[in-house]
């Protein structure tokens, strides 16, 4: 069900039942998915008491332009639907679980004499998938075990009974060394082959007890028949299986199937370790990082991790152990916080893993900060600056034979791009292709505005260009009476030479220096930003000009479309019906016909 339009009063019309709600912004992009016992009460909480909301949530609420909701039968169904929608759409204000790896699976193919092999592609029609495995090593260990225990073919032949009967195939080396019983030549029947497949399935599902009992009974049967060599082969397989099980951490034979989750928090992140226990042994272990978006509680973060990890690793365990309790029970699942015994030891193990991950994250963050500070301090030393240049601004301009003159300014804070501070400039006072005059204009406009708004000046200004461009920028600083307050340099592209105002000879920084690489990165980013802006303007102007040539379509119509669709690409992709809602059927038809002719 959908709400046809949005206003803050819309929540009053929502039903008092469980469901999932979706928030959309002005561009009709999904920005948040939430679950609720009561849609009416939960959605109302965002609008009734704005003083109780944190800054991020208030910012999200300001962006909301439309609400959709889906009614479900229970809160549990709402949790499942919320998880699916978040995983599919990745809304910007929902908790981000950083774990974008494509995990390996083992595929048991759906065919005569099924094959078993690893894959990362999930195509359900091909057969049954087992996994995902947290590591390739864990997957290979199981695959190696199965191939040691059973004679499952490794070839890719199509073993259709008709082809086998026509004797299209010959046995390969695998047959001669005893790893295959030759089904390709009809030397092994399919029913006998499928017995091994059935036992392999139990191992893949973590049920080691069944194949152990199978090999034990086969060993006893062979011994009773006085076939001692055969009995020894089964005993070897049984020993191999028991050795494999011994490698797993056995918690307790009385502990059956369960999931363990432990969570620890930092300011902006939380770390969750997940253990899947199958028949008393740890089957899967995984630690993930969750990025907080709206200052979520540990309970909210844990709930997110439980559903996403259980879904990812296809766990059907009904019992969950954790180091914290949830505010509300989860339908169909039983969560406990054990205080003593083996279950408590499992939680402590998971907690130890989560704490280690948090510690490693902090250590890596500290190293990154140390490197960042080192580079900035090195740049200060190389350029003989009074202060560390932790705030750098760089200018570049772009035009083609004087047409569409534009410029860009990028900002780096602490050695990293601060994209919210990037600025585009249309050159207003310069006619013709005069890069020097353009540079004087945009640098002057930038710092005139900063002075007017009483904002801090950068610690270093970088000009993309040599002496001429640098001199033009210096003129702008002199006109504002701030020359000498802010260090300014130019970087010439060809030899990567650094120029200072008034110096005839450039400074050459070691090409392998981290400080030079930082200046180059700042310069390249300014150039990219300017070129992109210039290209967009040319494209927009040419398309608008072309639209204006259509009879009945003027500048006001093309501006109206650009205001609504935000980009030319979206206008071209829009259907005639969508365009008609904005500019009417007649004009929409004219534009669609023009676009069709343009694409021929």
Automatic annotation (TrEMBL):
Gene Ontology MF term list: DNA binding; excinuclease ABC activity
Presence of the UniProt keyword DNA repair in the record: yes
UniProt record, GO biological process: nucleotide-excision repair; SOS response
PROSITE patterns xrefs: GIY_YIG (PS50164), UVR (PS50151), UVRC (PS50165)
SUPFAM superfamilies per UniProt: C-terminal UvrC-binding domain of UvrB (SSF46600), GIY-YIG endonuclease (SSF82771), RuvA domain 2-like (SSF47781)
Key word ATP-binding present: no
Localisation: Cytoplasm
Superkingdom as given in the UniProt entry: Bacteria
Sequence ranges assigned to domain GIY-YIG in this UniProt record: 16-95
Database matches in SMART domains: GIYc
Transmembrane segments: none
GO cellular component, one term: cytoplasm
CDD domains noted in UniProt: GIY-YIG_UvrC_Cho
Matching InterPro entries: GIY-YIG_endonuc, GIY-YIG_endonuc_sf, GIY-YIG_UvrC_Cho, RuvA_2-like, UVR_dom, UVR_dom_sf, UvrABC_protein_C, UvrC
Pfam families: GIY-YIG, HHH_5, UvrC_RNaseH, UvrC_RNaseH_dom
UvrC family homology region profile domain: residues covered: 338-477
Main location: cytoplasm
Residues of the UVR domain: 215-244
Keywords, comma-separated and alphabetical: Cytoplasm, DNA damage, DNA excision, DNA repair, Excision nuclease, SOS response
Subunit structure: Interacts with UvrB in an incision complex.
NCBIfam families for this protein: uvrC
Family according to the record: Belongs to the UvrC family.
Functional summary from the UniProt entry: The UvrABC repair system catalyzes the recognition and processing of DNA lesions. UvrC both incises the 5' and 3' sides of the lesion. The N-terminal half is responsible for the 3' incision and the C-terminal half is responsible for the 5' incision.
Protein name: UvrABC system protein C
Lineage, opening ranks: Bacteria, Pseudomonadati, Bacteroidota, Cytophagia, Cytophagales
